[in-house]
Write a structure and sequence with these properties.
Elements: H1 9-22, E1 25-31, H2 36-50, H3 54-60, H4 63-73, H5 82-88, H6 95-121, E2 126-136, E3 139-150, H7 153-161, E4 175-181, E5 184-190, E6 195-198, H8 203-211, E7 229-230, E8 235-236
Antiparallel strand pairs: 1-3, 1-4, 2-3, 4-5, 5-6, 7-8
Helix pairs in contact: 2-6, 4-6
Length: 237
């Protein structure tokens, strides 16, 4: 059932405490860069030309830092080369597209390192990892990686430290947290869209969640249950 409003404050805390009594695992998504080769080329230019280390970028990362890096590289002919000009045609004259190109590369450095560190830290809890590959016509496109983790007290503390389920989003963390019980999804999010779905087992559960402050679009209980997730290949059974 679709949640109407972002879950915040004491309602968020009560929901997470309830989830940790009910659920046994979570999933989180890591975006795959669809333009990885091009992005890596730009990252190499930025790192080699700026003299900044990855650690320095991680330390200084902010909107203000992104703007400074744009000013530093907006006229760089290696980044905005003929291939770029041909791809974007007259877009090379568009300052916003230039800003997106620079900031997107810096964000990718930040995102890759944040997620890498997080996965290393939580490696012992990861029990499955699947690649989400879709067929678009005759082309296979690698969209993202899904990591499944066993819930524990450390993860609970981290989840409770967030202000919202929607805090799991690019570029500050892995994304779209979902909670499972025995392979069935109980709560699913699409953070960048501000979407949250809760698959209540019964009317009593629906009424309890309403009582702690969760607002659903459906004002009456409607039985909804996702199909069991088949962890081995990332597909539903």
């Amino acid at each position: 059932m679709l949640v109407e409003e972002e879950i915040l404050g004491s309602t968020y805390e009560k929901l997470i405490n309830y989830i940790f009594k009910k659920c046994d695992s979570i999933s989180l998504m890591k975006q795959h860069d669809q333009h990885e080769e091009s992005t890596n080329r730009k990252i190499d230019i930025i790192l080699s030309t700026s003299g900044y280390s990855i650690n320095y970028i991680m330390e200084k990362y902010s909107n203000n830092f992104l703007n400074k890096m744009y000013e530093k590289f907006k006229d760089n002919e290696e980044i905005f080369n003929n291939d770029y000009k041909e791809k974007f045609e007259d877009g090379i004259k568009n300052d916003f597209k230039r800003w997106l190109t620079i900031s997107g590369s810096i964000r990718r450095i930040y995102y890759n390192n944040i997620t890498k560190q997080w996965l290393i830290k939580n490696e012992k809890n990861i029990f499955n990892h699947t690649k989400n590959i879709h067929n678009f016509g005759n082309e296979q496109v690698y969209l993202n990686d899904i990591y499944y983790l066993i819930l524990n007290d450390e993860l609970k503390s981290e989840i409770l430290s967030k202000k919202s389920l929607y805090d799991w989003h690019y570029p500050n963390s892995l994304e779209d947290i979902c909670f499972f019980k025995d392979g069935y999804c109980f709560l699913e999010t699409v953070a960048h869209e501000g979407l949250c779905f809760i698959y209540c087992d019964n009317e009593a559960e629906y009424e309890y969640l309403k009582s702690i402050g969760i607002k659903f679009f459906d004002k009456e209980f409607k039985p909804t249950k996702m199909e069991k997730w088949q962890y081995s290949d990332g597909n539903k059974q």
